[in-house]
Design goal:
The chain is of the alpha/beta class and 491 residues long. It folds into two domains: 282 residues, Rossmann fold (3-Layer(aba) Sandwich), CATH 3.40.50; 200 residues, N-(1-d-carboxylethyl)-l-norvaline Dehydrogenase, domain 2. Strands 7-4-3-8-9 form a five-stranded parallel beta sheet, sandwiched between helices. The protein has a four-stranded mixed beta sheet with strand order 2-6-5-12. It has a three-stranded mixed beta sheet with strand order 10-13-14, covered by helices on one side. β5 and β6 form a beta hairpin. α10 packs antiparallel against α12, α10 crosses α15 and α12 packs across α21. The longest helix is centred in the middle third of the chain and has 24 residues. The N and C termini lie far apart (47 Å). GO terms for molecular function: oxidoreductase activity, acting on the CH-OH group of donors, NAD or NADP as acceptor. This is Mannitol dehydrogenase family protein. InterPro entries: 6-PGluconate_DH-like_C_sf, 6PGD_dom2, Mannitol_DH, Mannitol_DH/Oxidoreductase, Mannitol_DH_C, Mannitol_DH_N, NAD(P)-bd_dom_sf. Keywords: Oxidoreductase.
Length: 491
């Protein structure tokens, strides 16, 4: 299409036919939520739910103000500011694509060192929820699950509570200001893929406050709520293909988002200052999120790690490509059925076996170009968050860990940095240098890999796991990845 329409408030009425646009008056919206971490997932998921509520004429006083605490967030702010904070969502369904412009976000806090604008915005009494999508590895959790008070950013925020580096330090500073001014607490809501994400967020916010102000820490712990939640939607990164796709629809959007035709949001109904009516647009509000989040994190998120690492080694570029690869597909099915499902409870309307079939269909969606590189990114957070808790349960129960050990060995093999076709794997983890060093040494001594206590804690000392891991890694290096997969799956 030759003529593109620049996305903005003024052009919503002139976008190409078939693109759904907001039905509400965006100029009348007022803020209620600050969301830190305005990546693709938030805009395809939480922001979409609120947008659909607003389309129903509801919750116009709950609009989102975006925020970030990293330098790259400033570029995202610029992109969204230039198009009035609108986003084009493109649903990729094998039966046909559809597009929708969402408008629940109305502003984005300037990104500045010391985070003064963010602190001031969160201290505004109109803000009743502060939500986050800052990645699983962003919560300063030790290998054993505690609060990492030794991290340099935490030490900085404890020493400089009025000019913090982290999102959590900014939340503490804003809550201190609200308490001093008598404006009451806000709900702190994590939307990251962490089991017990609300409890983990409480740990870091309350723990950080305690390092500089014990009374404030106690007030936050008593007055703020930290609901647990489970979020689910496959949302690829935006690159040249996604930009070309939105342009093919006739829209000039520099920050479009593609996503699958599936969403799920399960939220603990614990909000100290009110909440939007998310349940009216399909979210599940409950007092028991644990079973839902355990199923999703232990099967979908862990399943992504199962397939992404061998795919990188074997030069399979996409998750759909993984599902078309007979051995990687068989690996997923066997590990899920034999070593994941025994440690996952059913939820209303879904057994673990049904869920395996569901995620296999979702992963196989050929319209979703979700790269194995994106899914394999930050394994040093994702393996401890998704796979190692299952490994611990399996060891405690005396269950099989052969597949789990193979998955960890495949990660170690990937981190060596070369594919089996001889091409190099570019650094794909915040701790890549340390991982690659351990992976290279583990070729001769597999124990080196699982002796990384920042990742494995004491798991490397378990003789059952250590033996299974050594066997798997030695097999991969001796006979190749496909041979190791065939030996495990029987294919």
């Amino acid at each position: 299409m030759d003529q593109l329409t620049k996305l903005s408030n003024s052009t919503l009425g002139t976008l190409p036919a078939g693109i759904r646009v907001p039905k509400y008056d965006r100029s009348a919206l007022t803020p209620g939520i600050v969301h830190i971490g305005l990546g693709n997932f938030h805009r395809a998921h939480q922001a979409w739910y609120l947008h659909r509520l607003m389309d129903m004429g509801l919750n116009h006083d709950w609009a989102i103000i975006g925020a970030g605490v990293r330098a790259p967030d400033a570029a995202q702010r610029d992109r969204l500011l230039a198009q009035d904070f609108l986003t084009t969502l493109i649903e990729l369904d094998p039966s046909g694509r559809s597009a929708e412009v969402t408008g629940a976000m109305i502003d984005y806090v300037p990104v500045e060192e010391g985070n003064a604008p963010l602190i001031a915005q969160m201290a505004d009494p109109a803000i009743r929820i502060v939500a986050l999508t800052v990645t699983e590895g962003g919560y300063f959790v030790t290998a054993e699950g505690g609060f990492d008070v030794t991290h340099p950013d935490i030490a900085h925020d404890a020493a400089n509570p009025d000019a913090p580096r982290t999102a959590f330090g900014a939340m503490v500073a804003a809550l201190a200001k609200r308490r001093a001014e008598g404006n009451g607490p806000f709900t702190c809501m994590s939307c990251d893929n962490l089991q017990g994400n609300g409890a983990i967020l409480r740990q870091v916010v309350v723990g950080l406050a305690a390092l500089s102000d014990k009374e404030l820490s106690e007030w936050i712990d008593a007055e703020c709520t930290f609901p647990n939640s489970m979020v689910d939607c496959i949302v690829p990164a935006t690159g040249p293909a996604e930009l070309a796709l939105v342009q093919s629809l006739g829209v000039d959007d520099t920050a479009p988002v593609t996503h699958e035709n599936f969403r799920q949001w399960v939220i603990e109904d614990s909000f100290c200052a009110g909440r939007p009516d998310w349940d009216k647009v399909g979210a599940t509000l409950t007092q028991d999120v644990h079973a839902y989040e355990a199923m999703k994190i232990r099967m979908l998120n862990a399943g992504h790690q199962v397939i992404a690492n061998p795919a990188e080694i074997l030069s399979v570029e996409t998750i759909a490509g993984c599902m078309a690869h007979p051995l990687i597909n068989a690996l997923l099915r066997k590990v899920e059925n034999d070593e994941f499902a025994p440690y996952v409870d059913a939820v209303p309307g879904m057994t673990p076996q049904d869920y395996i079939d569901l995620i296999a269909r979702r992963f196989a969606n050929p319209e979703i170009r979700d790269t194995t590189r994106r899914v394999a990114f930050d394994g040093s957070s994702r393996h401890p968050g998704f796979i190692l808790p299952i490994l611990r349960d399996a060891l405690a129960a005396g269950g099989s860990v052969k597949g789990l050990a193979l998955c960890e060995a495949l990660w170690a093999r990937m981190c060596e940095g070369t594919r089996e076709d001889g091409t190099k794997i570019a650094p794909n983890d915040p701790h890549w240098d340390a991982l690659q060093d351990a992976a290279i040494k583990a070729k001769d001594d597999p124990q080196v890999w699982i002796d990384q206590t920042t990742i494995y804690g004491s798991l490397g000392e378990n003789p059952v796991f250590a033996s299974a891991f050594a066997d798997a890694l030695n097999d991969i290096w001796a006979h190749g990845t496909e041979a190791a997969l065939a030996a495990y799956t029987g294919k």
